[in-house]
From TrEMBL:
Signal peptide: none
Pfam families: CheW
Domain CheW-like, residue spans: 101-241
Family matches, as InterPro entries: CheW (IPR039315), CheW-like_dom_sf (IPR036061), CheW-lke_dom (IPR002545)
The protein's name: Chemotaxis protein CheW
PROSITE patterns: CHEW (PS50851)
SUPFAM superfamilies, sorted: CheW-like
Length: 244
């Protein structure tokens, strides 16, 4: 009976001899001895025993380093902002914060929306009895007494040549003041107070030429719609005002 351990030793010796043969130091007699030692063993078993055992050879150190580098290398798609880009963004944010904007009281006259600088609005009241006075422009409806102060009331529709105002449940009188005068403006209804930045205010377009230029301060854009911004000083001109 053949000792398997002895066969394995001889197989390893054959592998070493084969390696030496490739380098010019082969020993044919040893190989023959190994082959003769496996006689009498079944063919398949003998072939497996006589076949040199293949040993995994580790990759060179350089290839292993490349593999590790590929494994742990991450493509960095996020780039840090440069100092110039950072200060550009900061400057834009400051400009936006410092951008001047004004608040406007919006109201309706017919189907159109108009607005007045909220800083010129003293209060809003419901219509009341108006005392007519003679020899005044047609847009001056008369006067009222507001806490002991005589205030002229203007029909703003007539002042803007949009027809004649009629008093309805939604009508209101906007009491306005500038540095020297006070007057009330009768409008069809109050909408809301909006904030419009200066860059969203444009000068009056030529289509408003039929209205006195002094009456319109500009056109404001707010949430996709246009508002006609009125000039209070122009509205007070050619009317009856009460000096404070």
């Amino acid at each position: 009976m053949i000792d398997l351990a002895d066969i394995r030793k001889k197989a390893r010796a054959e592998k070493d001899v084969a390696a030496q043969g490739e380098s010019g130091d082969a020993a044919p007699d040893n190989c023959a001895a190994v082959r003769s030692s496996v006689q009498g063993v079944p063919n398949a078993q003998a072939e497996s025993l006589a076949k040199p055992t293949q040993v995994a050879v580790p990759p060179p150190a350089a290839e292993a380093a490349d593999a590790l580098e590929r494994l742990f290398s991450i493509e960095n798609s996020l780039q840090l902002a440069s100092e110039e880009i950072y200060f550009q963004g900061l400057s834009a944010a400051l400009d936006q914060a410092e951008e001047k904007s004004l608040e406007w009281l919006t109201f309706s006259l017919g189907n159109e929306e108009y607005a007045l600088d909220i800083g010129a609005v003293a209060e809003i009241i419901k219509p009341r009895d108006i005392t007519e006075i003679p020899r005044v422009p047609e847009h001056v409806m008369g006067i009222i007494s507001l806490r002991g102060v005589i205030v002229p009331i203007f029909d703003l529709k007539r002042r803007l040549r949009l027809g004649v105002a009629t008093s309805t449940p939604t009508s209101r009188i906007i009491i306005c003041q500038n540095e020297e005068a006070t007057a009330g403006l009768l409008v069809d209804g109050i909408s809301q107070v909006v904030r419009i930045s200066e860059r969203n205010i444009e000068p009056p377009p030529p289509m408003l030429a039929d209205i006195d230029v002094d009456l319109v301060a500009g056109v404001g854009r707010h949430q996709g719609r246009f508002l006609i911004l009125l000039n209070l000083e122009g509205l007070f001109n050619a009317g009856v005002t009460i000096r404070q």
